[in-house]
Amino acid sequence: MLKLMFFKIIFLSMIFLTGCRDKNKMDIANNQIDQGQLQEAIVTIDDALLRDSSNLEYFKLRGICYFMLKDYSKAIYDFSKYLMIHDGDTDVLYNRAESYERLSFLQLAIADYSKIISMDPKNASSLNSRGLLYSSLGELDLALEDYDRIIGFDSNQYNVYSNIGVIYDKKKFHEKAIIEYTKAIFYNKSESRFFYNRGTSYLYLNRPLEALKDLNYAIKLHPGISGYYVNRGSAYDLLNQKQRACEDWFKAYKMGDSDAAEFLNENCGEKISM
After folding, report:
1. Domain 24-86, what architecture?
2. Full-prediction pTM beyond 0.70?
3. How many CA atoms lie within 13 A of 43 on its CB side?
4. Cα separation of 56 and 132, whole Å?
5. Whether the Cβ atoms of residue 29 and residue 48 lie closer than 8 Å to each other
6. Among candidates 173, 180, 120, 118, which has minimal Cα distance to 155?
7. From CA 214, how far away is CA 170, in angstroms rounded?
8. Nearest Cα to 100, choosing from 78, 75, 122, 124?
9. What is the pLDDT of residues 263-274, one digit of tens each?
């Protein structure tokens, strides 16, 4: 009996020591990640997995490292290993969806976002991400459904209003687009993209004065975006201010915008090779 008790104590001690070692490895890896030492963290996790590949938390942690290093294929592998058991972890599902998205596996990304939404119907990030993917795939009505669901429980989502405006522009409902961009601007007046988008909608409607006002403000907020000058040049052109139009197109061309080169060639007597 004493011999049996002795072996039992030794066995329990080994389990305790292994658990402490695993916890220590996990702490080391987390500290390395916090310090931006991602490759070192991966080495630590690899060593831990050699000892015990049944601890799926390591796959989750290594997947995060690979995701941050933009090695999305390896991130997907690790996240998938973890999700085999922990399939209700919406954070890991979201990270895997983003990884699929980066690799252009859009339907797989949509599937993960959809699973998150089925578990958490008010997950705004997943609804917005799925809506963006639907929009990029031309599924505009499905995208609108996702955006409308977000607005239904959080009316302050200015990026969502802008996304709705983009869809209405794609559908050529420019007046509706302007209404949505105006809502976005109401909640966030510091985002140049909203003014640029609304100004572009005004251009579609041949309303250059209103377009010019918005594009001027977009450039004031963020003067380093070439597309803003291209469209302001178009507004000047509609107002028969040819010199100003050409000046804006030339600025955009110097910033590397190929559309600007085309406008210069067609309207300003330039001979720029594209």
Report:
1. Alpha Horseshoe (1.25)
2. yes
3. 5
4. 31
5. yes
6. 180
7. 20
8. 75
9. 999 999 866 665
